[in-house]
Amino acid sequence: MAEKKQMIVYAASYDDVNDALGDLDAIEQLHKDEMIGQYDAAVIDKENSEPHVVKRMDRPGVRVIPEWFGGGTLPRKELHEAAEQLTASRAGLVAVVEPTIEKALDDALTRAAKVTKRTLEATTDEITSELQEALKS
Fold it and tell me: Which of 59, 113, 120, 128 is the most exposed place for a label (fewest CB within 10 A)?
């Protein structure tokens, strides 16, 4: 059984992928400013009607190997499933963060058309379900 851990799941939708990338850059700046806490975030969209992970960041970056094998907080398979919920003209940013950086992340997501946020003790499967529901058109 997967270990449950208190996390905050953000799912934001954007009219433009560049806006989503801008907010992802703001999240990375939080890391550079030495904010305390872990996060896993990615910008997703559809490219030629196929789900596509545009860019992702995982800090601290200790999950590189598990990601190659489909692990980590936001495995590639689950990101593709969440991207399926987007229409062709939209982009999404998904982030799973520790509660310690919640306030800073609230301030960083400024370009989104819509942001949903849930606090939960979650396994990866539960996080995936939350993301898919939040990004439905």
Answer: 113
